[in-house]
Amino acid sequence: MKIEGQYPLPAPREQVWAALNDPEVLTRTTPGLKTLKPTGEGTYDATIELAVGPVKGSYEGKVRITDQAPPERMTLVVEGGGRVGTIRASGALTLEAQGDKTMVHYVGDAQVTGVLMSVGHRLFGGVAKQLAGEFFKALEREVVRRKT
After folding, report:
1. Cα(35)–Cα(146) distance, rounded to whole angstroms?
2. What are the pLDDT digits (tens) for 14-36?
3. What is the pTM of this model?
4. Domains within the chain, CATH numbers bracketed
C-alpha cells in the first residue's frame, strides 16, 4: 500500500532535518511508536503499536535511516514482527527549502501481514494517510516549539 503527499512546516530546512534525526522527537511524533533506542549509526530498536479498526497489534523491530543527503533527503525503513503478524514500511522524505519554511514531500510504502491486515485491509489506506497527517502535525508542533 502506497501513500504520498507533502506537508509545509514553519521552520528552516536545517531545523526540520535536525528534528527528523532526533530519536526523542521521532518517538514523540510518530503515531504508535512506543520506544526507539539507538543501536548504531542511523539504526534503532523499536516497539510499535498499531490499530486498524477494532484490531490492535504490537510489533518489535528495527528502524533504519538510509539514503541520507543532509539536509535534503532521507529514507526511513521500518521492519518488525509480533504475535499479530509482520510490518515492513519505508518512507522517503525530501525537504525543500522555501525561505524560512520547509515543504516536506513524502512517498511511503507499507506491507502488513497477519491478523491486522486480514481484518482491516479495506481500512488500511485511510489509516496510513491519517497516521501520516498525525505525524506531520506533531512534527510541526515540535519545530514551532524549538523556534521559541
Report:
1. 22
2. 999 999 999 999 999 998 899 99
3. 0.88
4. 2-147 (3.30.530.20)
